[in-house]
Amino acid sequence: MATRSNDDHPATKAAQALGDIEPITKSVTPPLYPASTYQRDADNQYRNGRVYGRPHNPTFETAERLLTALEGGAASLLFASGMAAATAVFLALKPGDHVVAPEVMYWGLRAWLKGSATEWGLSFTFVDATDTAAFARAIEPGRTRLVWLETPSNPTWGISDIAAIAALAHAAGARVAVDSTVATPILSRPIEFGADIVMHSGTKYLNGHSDIIAGTLTTAKADEFWERIKAVRSNVGAILGTFEAWLLQRGMRTLHIRVERASQSALKIARHFESHPLVAEVLYPGLPAFAGHKLAAQQMTGGFGGMLSIRVKGGEPAAIAVAAETRLWKRATSLGGVESLIEHRGSIEGPTSPVPLDLLRLSVGIEYADDLIADMEQALIMAHR
Ligand code: PLP
Fold this sequence. Notes:
- Helix content is 38%, strand content 15%.
- By secondary structure, the chain is α/β, with parallel strands linked by helices.
- It folds into two domains: 10-252, 3-Layer(aba) Sandwich (Aspartate Aminotransferase, domain 2); 255-383, Aspartate Aminotransferase, domain 1.
- A seven-stranded mixed beta sheet has the order 1-7-6-5-4-2-3, with helices on both faces. A five-stranded mixed beta sheet has the order 8-9-12-11-10.
- Pyridoxal-5'-phosphate is lined by residues 81-83, 106, 108-109, 150, 154, 179, 181-182, 201, 203, 213, 215, 334-335.
C-alpha cells in the first residue's frame, strides 16, 4: 500500500514540488500557463474559478501550495517582489490604523513605512524588536492592528520572540506578520509560534539563484483580512510573471539542501572569525556569545541560517577595503543565492541607518566553506596592510 503524501517530510514535499504529475503529458515538472484570460462556460459561469490573469494564474499554484505546506499555513500568494508582498499587508489595513514595527529591519520597507505608508494614514511605533517589553509598551489595545516582525533581522540578526509578541498582539486585537526571509521555512515556521502571516522575499532563499525578483505571503487563516490582501494583489497588479513563478517552484525544490549547507558554512565562518585579530565582532545567531542565541535555538531548528555580519577593526574605511579585496565573496546587495555575497550596509542604507558603519553583511552561499574562509582571511590582511 502506498504511503500517504501528508506524512512526507517537508524536504520530500519540496524536492517533488508536492509530487504532482501533469495529467495530459505525464510530465514530472509542472507546466507554465502564460494565459492572460480563461474561457467562460457556455451557460455564462466560470466553473473552474479562473477568469483573468491578474487575479488567477495556475502557474503560481505549485509554489503557493508548496509554500503553504512548508509554512504550515492555510494559503499562500506569490507577488511581484518581496516589497510587493510586504506592502500588500499594510495596504490591506485602513488609514488611521496603528502598527508596531522594528527599528532594525529590511531598510527598503522601513523607508516605505516612514514615507508613503505614513502619508497614506498609517501610524507607526518603531521599537527594539529584541525587547519583548518594548512591544508591551507600544501595542495599544483596540488601536494597534498589526505588529510587523523580521527575525533574524537584517543586517544585525536580532531575534524577536514570536510567541511572546504574538500573545501580546492577539490580546490587544492585533495581527502579527513576520518577514521570515532569512530564516526560511526550513529553519523557522512562524505560524507554529502564533504568527498570522509570514512574508518572504522569494528573491532570496526560496528561489536561491539570484535570477528572479519575487515575494510571498502565507496566512495561518484564510479570513477576511486575507481576502483584502488578495484584492490588493489583484487590484494593484502586483503579480509575478509566469516564468518567474515557475523558476520559484524550481528553486524551492532544492531549498532544504541549500539552506542546510549555507547554515553549516555560516556557523563555521562565524566561529572562525569570532576571535580574529582584525575583526571587532561577529554577529550571528548561532554563536553562544550572540545576545539572541538562546531564543534563536528555541525558534529555529536545524541551523541558524546563512546570514552573518562582521564588524571590521579600523572602522568604515577598513570595512570597505575588505570588501574590495575579496575574490569569491562578490560585492553585491541581496542574499540567499548559491553564490556568496559581501556588502558594506552603511553604503546602501545611507545616513539615517541604525547599522554600524564598520559592518559587512555576508550572505553565505553553497561554495566550499574553507575557500570562503581563505578568501576572507586574505582580504582582511590586504585591507589592513
Ligand atoms: N525582506 C528582506 C529581509 C530583504 O532582505 C529584502 C530584500 O533585500 C526584502 C524584504 C525585499 O524583497 P525584494 O527585494 O524581493 O522586494
